[in-house]
């Protein structure tokens, strides 16, 4: 790098104005590059990628910039590591269909990349960056579905329209909301509702195709005489509102129109986009727990994304009980973007440009002799050359930043593996391992067995004293993980503990093991993986037991756990099951589960102490046929979802450690297995000028449709929020039933769009809460057979 390190450059450049046009230019340039592509499909995909890549690059740099603002020295010291992190994100993005892995890996990658800082700083920084980047990730995920350029959308619309017109006469297909927010509805007097909706997403096309397949015979006879090869619908682009139009077939690009009026349509008046200030919402994978708002100390959580609204404003709201002036609470989005988003500096732009081209073109890394100058980028992208920019600014493959990013990108998918290698090599510094352990421990969820699940609060890892029983128990009570290899602790039928098969344990190994005990609890196989098989799971378990490594931990942590529990009492309690913590048989004195009239779940430590015979153990079922859809199933009766690990209804087939879900017939595991139906959002038939939730596939009676996800709040918080929402809108997205309070206003799933039937119809669904993995969750279930295209309606209160 010609003028100093990247850190220095970032530091110097970070306060410059953000140049938003750079993004446009980048996007434009990339689109031009792609215009030569032959296949439409290929082009479309590339364009889509192009759009979100640009956004993404900017988002990542924006996050870095935010850090600059708050902790300049921190970032300066770690900027390369954050770049590393960004590259990892990029890699995850490229295979974005595996978004879950991308998100989970992010936290882990973060903790790796920030290693070496003070422990406290590390924890704080990792959590702060992870949460903001997760937000970016979630938004990104959204944009993958929706953010397409106008041309792309337009071209896509045309294709869809052609498909539709070829195969018209399919009744009442809803294809989701349109980007121009208008509804086009056929008003032919003969047929009540022929379609004229254009889908913009692939999945909608596939829906059409599916329905068309089902109606093929009818369609064939209808259009048997129609011979045009390429069809195109006219007019499409701008139709005056409220006017009846003729929809015609004609041959594309042919001025000699031999069109045929096939139907009349009316363009309904525009449906306004919901004002984003009130309705911006982040899609959630799982429920999100929030603590009660502390009115004295913290900014209030109002129904607005990303805004921290000062307490005075909130107090004003409560006192005046009057509608708020938007600008008081909700700064305009555009101004926020323009003024706060800073930081694609010239040099960084070059990097991003190079990086993005690299990804899109899938070229080999930049050749060494290629020089990449700011002016050459400007020429290519029609950017103005600014006087302040050094004209000879150049980046080559030797540039550490470029090389670094490329090396990460080239092998992004193996990043996690390499992270493990790093852990291994980390044994030179015990403190680092311990720091790492602390971070991992914080992020690792014992309920979900994933990193930073976002669903559960960090759980104190409780290490069972009699863990050896687990090896025996493995034959009866399956574990989440399959045996890791031959000789795995869970494969040993009668453990011969007296025989040591341990390799030598160095001091480093012991400290690492201690660290891992806190992270992984008794997941010995995981430890073995992270140890890179230097020590097997058997050896880890044996060594930990014979040296009483975990007992100390249990004693040490008891006090802390009590403290945590009492903290959490103030907020969501019943919904969020906390494992008990005692080392003898459960009774109402010692067992928090029993006291709360809850069952002990399988992750409660008492199961290990009592060899799986805890008297307060959660019920399981062995229903024949695996239906579990009525009161004869004990799980169903108790509003519990069946447990694939314990209920025998679920037909737990294992093939090389994977669940074979095709053989599982149980229908009482919808929430846990995320077996939701394919749904989409479109203008509602019941809520005038509002949105509704529709199904793309037929649903059978009692089947699980989707989970009502949102922020889990306490009753107090729920009431407080409702009050603030009422001041803004008459709509409510809060689900209240018994102990369950879910606020889907700012964060939620598609279920937040489900309407009530009102007086026009009967509900076709019902809501029901289920205890799933200990926690209370709310599912929407079909009350009758539902056809594809129907709106999902359920009574909010019953
Ligand atoms: C959870 S939201 C449903 C989504 C909402 N339709 C939208 O456009 O975002 C619930 C709100 O929708 C409105 N709503 C739901 N069902 C309705 C109906 N049958 N008639 C009128 N408004 C309805 C009410 O304002 C209610 O508070």
Automatic annotation (TrEMBL):
BP GO terms, sorted: heterochromatin formation; methylation
One Pfam match: SET
UniProt cross-references to InterPro entries, sorted A to Z: CXC_dom, EZH1/2-like, SET_dom, SET_dom_sf
SUPFAM superfamilies: SET domain
Positions of the SET domain: 677-797
Top-rank taxon: Eukaryota
An annotated Gene Ontology molecular function: histone H3K27 methyltransferase activity
Gene3D superfamilies: SET domain
GO CC terms of this entry: nucleus
Family annotation (SMART domains): SET
Domain CXC: 556-670
Keyword annotations from UniProtKB, A to Z: Methyltransferase, S-adenosyl-L-methionine, Transcription, Transcription regulation, Transferase
Protein name: SET domain-containing protein
């Amino acid at each position: 790098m010609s003028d100093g390190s990247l850190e220095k450059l970032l530091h110097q450049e970070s306060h410059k104005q953000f140049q938003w046009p750079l993004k446009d230019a980048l996007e434009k340039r990339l689109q031009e590059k792609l215009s030569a592509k032959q296949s439409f499909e290929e082009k479309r995909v590339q364009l889509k990628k192009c759009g979100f890549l640009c956004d993404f690059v900017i988002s990542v740099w924006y996050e870095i910039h935010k850090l600059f603002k708050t902790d300049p020295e921190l970032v300066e010291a770690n900027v390369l590591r954050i770049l590393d992190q960004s590259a990892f994100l990029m890699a995850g993005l490229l295979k974005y269909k595996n978004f879950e892995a991308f998100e989970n890996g992010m936290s882990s990658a973060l903790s790796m990349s920030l290693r070496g800082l003070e422990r406290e700083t590390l924890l704080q920084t990792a959590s702060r960056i992870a949460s903001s980047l997760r937000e970016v990730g979630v938004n990104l995920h959204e944009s993958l579905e929706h953010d397409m350029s106008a041309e792309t959308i337009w071209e896509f619309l045309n294709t869809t329209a052609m498909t539709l017109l070829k195969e018209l006469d399919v009744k009442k297909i809803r294809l989701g909301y349109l980007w121009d927010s208008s509804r086009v509805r056929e008003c032919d007097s003969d047929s009540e509702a022929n379609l004229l909706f254009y889908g913009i997403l692939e999945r909608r096309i596939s829906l059409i195709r599916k329905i068309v397949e089902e109606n093929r015979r009818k369609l064939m006879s209808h259009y048997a005489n129609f011979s045009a090869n390429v069809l195109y619908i006219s007019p499409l682009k701008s139709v005056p509102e409220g006017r009846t139009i003729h929809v015609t077939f004609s041959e594309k690009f042919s001025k000699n129109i031999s069109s045929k009026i096939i139907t009349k349509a009316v363009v309904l008046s525009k449906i306004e986009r919901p004002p984003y200030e009130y309705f911006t919402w982040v899609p959630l994978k799982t429920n999100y727990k929030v603590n009660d708002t502390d009115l004295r100390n913290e900014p209030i959580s109002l129904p607005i994304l990303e805004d921290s609204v000062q307490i005075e404003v909130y107090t004003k709201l409560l006192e005046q009980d009057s509608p708020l002036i938007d600008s008081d609470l909700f700064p305009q989005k555009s101004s926020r973007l323009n003024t706060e988003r800073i930081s694609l500096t010239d040099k960084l732009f070059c990097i991003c440009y190079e990086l993005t081209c690299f990804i899109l073109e899938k070229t080999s890394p930049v050749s060494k002799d290629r020089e990449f100058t700011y002016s050459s980028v400007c020429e290519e992208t029609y950017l103005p050359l600014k006087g302040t920019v050094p004209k000879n600014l150049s980046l080559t493959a030797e540039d550490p930043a470029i090389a670094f990013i490329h090396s990460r990108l080239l092998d992004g998918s193996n990043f996690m593996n390499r992270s493990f290698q790093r852990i291994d090599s980390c044994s030179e510094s015990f403190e680092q391992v311990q720091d790492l352990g602390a971070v991992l421990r914080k992020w690792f969820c014992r309920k979900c067995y994933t990193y930073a699940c976002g669903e559960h609060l960090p759980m104190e890892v409780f290490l069972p004293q009699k863990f050896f029983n687990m090896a025996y128990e493995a034959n009866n009570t399956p574990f989440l993980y399959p045996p890791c290899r031959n000789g795995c602790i869970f494969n040993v039928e009668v453990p011969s503990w007296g025989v040591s098969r341990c390799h030598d344990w160095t001091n480093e190994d012991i400290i690492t093991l201690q660290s891992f005990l806190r992270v992984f609890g008794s997941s010995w196989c995981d430890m073995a993986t992270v140890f890179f098989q230097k020590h097997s799971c058997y050896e880890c378990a044996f060594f930990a037991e014979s040296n009483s490594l975990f007992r100390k931990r249990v004693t040490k942590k008891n006090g802390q756990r009590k403290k945590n529990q009492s903290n959490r009492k103030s907020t969501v309690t019943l919904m969020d099951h906390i494992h008990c913590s005692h080392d003898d048989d459960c009774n109402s004195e010692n067992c928090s589960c029993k006291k709360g009239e809850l069952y002990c779940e399988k992750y409660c430590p008492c199961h290990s102490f009592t060899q799986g015979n805890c008297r307060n153990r959660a019920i399981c079922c062995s229903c024949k046929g695996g239906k579990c859809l009525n009161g004869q199933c004990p799980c169903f009766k108790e509003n519990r979802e069946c447990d694939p690990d314990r209920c025998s209804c679920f037909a737990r087939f294992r093939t090389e450690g994977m669940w074979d879900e095709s053989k599982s017939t149980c229908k009482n595991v919808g929430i846990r297995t995320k077996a939701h139906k394919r749904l989409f959002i479109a203008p509602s038939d019941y809520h005038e000028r509002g949105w509704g939730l529709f199904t793309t596939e037929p649903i059978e009676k009692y089947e699980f449709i989707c989970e009502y996800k949102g922020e889990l709040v306490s009753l107090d918080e729920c009431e407080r929020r409702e009050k603030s929402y009422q001041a803004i809108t008459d709509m409510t997205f809060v689900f209240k039933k018994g102990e369950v309070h879910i606020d889907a206003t700012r964060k939620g799933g598609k279920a937040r769009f489900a309407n009530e039937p009102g007086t026009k119809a009967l509900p076709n669904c019902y809501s029901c809460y289920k205890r799933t993995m200990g926690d209370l969750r709310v599912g929407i279930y079909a009350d009758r057979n539902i056809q594809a295209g129907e709106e999902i309606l359920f009574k909010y209160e019953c």
